[in-house]
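Researcher: Structure prediction, please.
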Amino acid sequence: MSTAGHAFRDNLTMLRRNLLHARRYPSLTLNLLLTPVILLLLFVYVFGNVMSAGINGGHADRGDYVAYLVPGILFLTVAMTSLGTAVSVCTDMTEGIMARFRTMAISRSSVLIGHVIGSVIKTMAALVLVLGIGLAIGFRPEASPVEWIAAAALMALVSLALTWIAVGMGLVSPNPEGASNIGTPLVMLPFLSSAFVPVDAMPGWFRWFAEYQPFSPFIETLRGLLLGSEIGAKNAVLSLAWAIGLSVLGYLWSRASFNREPKR
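Model: Predicted structure follows.
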């Protein structure tokens, strides 16, 4: 078997390991998934009437707010699921599993790639669940099949980018608790974006940050794809630039951290 063939086999082995681990120990994934679901229901049924006053010039109802909210909750789900990857990677480091893999005749990159691909698969499954709940409470997308494919590709690309960032966080954290804490800013960014209210409704001193940080372009692009609203060239370009840039940054950071990490 060629070198590429061995690497591909090792990637599949590590992917299978991570998926089996998630199935046997689902508590972390469930805890991270419950938060965006609870927030979705909370903002719709508790704060929906109040929050809807901030969109469509105050003429929106709860149904309009559901349509506005669901794309933001979907990306919140992506961020929270990637945080679980940071904890999982750090757990492997502190328990000596990474050191054991280094002594085995396997592709070194497969150790990280297995975590990343496994996380993206789990994230996409979580997004299907959250989207299903959104549809059950009144979310009615107007996307064509091509727009659905583009929306799925966008969420998968963002999931890939955030997962590589999360892997880097897990590799540099001293313990799983530290990995959870260091990933908190990643989870907080959706709350500081256009996920819950338009950036135009925010104070001027904060509006610039909310508009140009990664999640606002992601969310606005997804809204345009699913709801038929205007995306705008700025949001489309910023979405791709942030997603590709974070993917490259996360990959280089993770690879460097993994290669210099001492054996344990």
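Model: The chain has a mean pLDDT of 82.
Researcher: Thanks, that helps.
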